[in-house]
Design goal:
Helices cover 54% and strands 14% of the residues. The longest helix is centred in the C-terminal third of the chain and has 18 residues, at 47-64. It is globular and about 50 Å long. It is α+β, with helices and mostly antiparallel strands and 78 residues long. The protein has a 3-stranded antiparallel β-sheet. Strand 2 and strand 3 (42-46) form a beta hairpin.
Length: 78
Amino acid sequence: MKPANPTILTVREVAVYLRLHAVTVYRMAQHGALPAFRVGRGWRFKRDQVDQWLLDRQIDNAMLVPPAAKLARGKGRP
């Protein structure tokens, strides 16, 4: 029986969790773009590290959004 909320995830579980294709998750792990570690030939992911990775991406993306003043002044153009 699998735990309801495992702390260690497989490529497939991360793919479902992030709504990505498993091959994308595998490639991101290979290139170090997603926190992961090898177990034999497979990849494993710590759920808390994946959650932190997501949070970091949300913060980075929020910094790219132009301030409301710029949007009101010139539809996103300075």
